[in-house]
Amino acid sequence: FDPRHYLGTHCYSLPKTGPHRLRFLLESVKDLRETLKKKGSTLVVRKGKPEDVVHDLITQLGSVIAVVFHEEVREILQW
Fold first, then answer.
1. 3-state SS string over 23-78?
2. pTM for this model (two decimals)
């Protein structure tokens, strides 16, 4: 979980993640972890800036072949 996702937006400082969205995210992650566990796998969940957390996790695991990620798309709307 990237703490920057829970700060205010660039415009008007509105919350990016309200309580309902946060609850949905937490429940989804919990469900995914449980589903993976039933299939003999696991889910690693960390809190922090991804650029730091991923580096630390790779160092900790030592035998990482690939890292896959997605980047948030930021659109600038012009009226």
1. HHHHHHHHHHHHHHHHCCCCCCCCCCCHHHHHHHHHHHHCCCCCCCCCCCCCCCCC
2. 0.66
Give 27-62 pLDDT, tens digit per residue.
999 999 999 999 999 998 999 998 899 899 899 988
Name, in order, each residue with C-beta under 8 angstroms of 61's C-beta and a sequence gap of 6 or more.
none
The pair of structure tokens assigned to 25 is 């995210």
Q: 10 pLDDT band (50/70/90 cuts)?
A: low
| Angstrom distances, CA of residue 34 to CA of 24, 41, 61 | 15, 9, 22
List of domains in the chain: 3-61 (3.40.50.620)
How far is Cα 40 from Cα 1, in angstroms, rounded to an integer? 23
